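ok so for the tutorial part 2 we go from a plain amino acid sequence to predicted structure tokens. step 1 is just haveing the sequence, like this:
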Amino acid sequence: MGLARVQACDSVAVNTDKSHYLAVWEFQVRLEAQPQFDAIYGPEGDWSHLFRQSPDYRGTQLFRDIERAGRCLTFDRWTSRDAFHQFKKDHQADHDAFDNDANL
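step 2 — the prediction. this is what the tokens look like for a chain of 104 residues:
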């Protein structure tokens, strides 16, 4: 059984300026799975270790909703939209494995 349900199939992305791209992922995490989820999707977790293979990756932040239990967001920062999508394309199997593990 997975850790969380991904609320959106694709990330929501925001171009914050010419050299910054933010991919936002929303998860609904079972409360008992929160520690494991944090370890995988937090700034030092497996998720960010995968992305660190790219020189265009700038870091991940993990946020918890204080009003809706179990709702978490990850903010992944990249140098550009193209860099993010190229990395996903080049590492599709690894990226998909996270989605498969996270889903209930």
